[in-house]
Write a structure and sequence with these properties.
alpha/beta, TIM Barrel, Xyl_isomerase-like_sf, Metabolite traffic protein EboE
Length: 399
Amino acid sequence: MDLGNGLGHLSYSTLVHAGDTWADMNASLREFVPLVKARVSPDAPFAVSLRMSASTVETLRGSERERADLISFLREHDLYLYTVNAFPYGPFKGREVMEDVYEPDWTSEARVEYTNAIADLLAELAPAHIDPSIQTSPLAFAPNVTGADYVAHFTTNALRVAAHLYDLERRTGRRVKLALEPEPACYLETTDETVAFFRERIHSPAGVAELARIAGIPLSEAEGAVRRYLGVVFDIGHQTVGFEDITTSLAKLVDAGIPIFKLQEAAALWVERLTPEMLPELRVFTDTIYLSQSSLRVDGVITKYLHLGDALDAYEANPVETELRTHFHVPVFLSEIGPFRTTRFGVEAALAMHRELPLSDHLEIETYTWDVLPAELKTGDIVDYVTRELEFVRDLAQG
């Protein structure tokens, strides 16, 4: 939905629903999204964030009828597509995902072709008044990055997609934006690392020149194109897991001239003061199909772990005064969840900043963990849950 006053479009990520194939995603879209719209935007168009797996892309590219049916459904229900989640390439629901979620990474031809195909679909499926965004992975899982050649390879591939987006707009008049999403344990993890990557690899004279060569355009045109087509998703939950100050991090991106193509409202699990008595209840959250990157802060020193269970084991071996944050997406309207707290404060800080000077035209809630949230912490069904999140973020954004 359009929040008005330049505050951008808001919806929720359909990554929360079954959607590994187009049959699954189409069924989820038709079952849940009209129900959510009826509650939060009954009299105005409602934005749709669509998860597109590689399987979905293959189906939609190959079937004009499926594309026409989707356009018809969106129009019939007063819905409009504004963003696509192209982070998970393959299956994401109902099986262990872990670090496979980053594969294929940005060194692969498959990732380039998949992303370009989504851009082409968006040029057809998104309405004319929307410049749609593509959310993608943080280039690579950090342990896989073996050196400078690896970084140069995925940098070139990102610029190849930017060149495709330039050509797509030239041919169709439709601008599609690619947004890299920093995440714990990845090549792009911290805001400082993200700023450095853009400064040294994308916005640098060498990066601009490489885009000019790939796209076959003058340097003067490439200088603007890198910012017109390449930017970031800022996931508030990811950055709070790393103990970043959210307003400071957002200001760094703005000051560096890095477009925030999507501002993602997400909250993580937070334990301000860990105690041994909490460990059994926290270990409930380790039974998940997703990575649970976690950070422990002791005397100002932050230590990072790939899994919550590893962080809890480390604390149990040395139970000193410790603060814990973990990459487990929790409902953004909650400041507490059971006996623990959440990093909702990060969402509140970001939206306060956004109200003063809008940071992005795309806002999205990405709490995809409904299916793995402990049963005793769920209230209502998934439509209730999504509706409460949307109402909370809308009210915060509008002030």
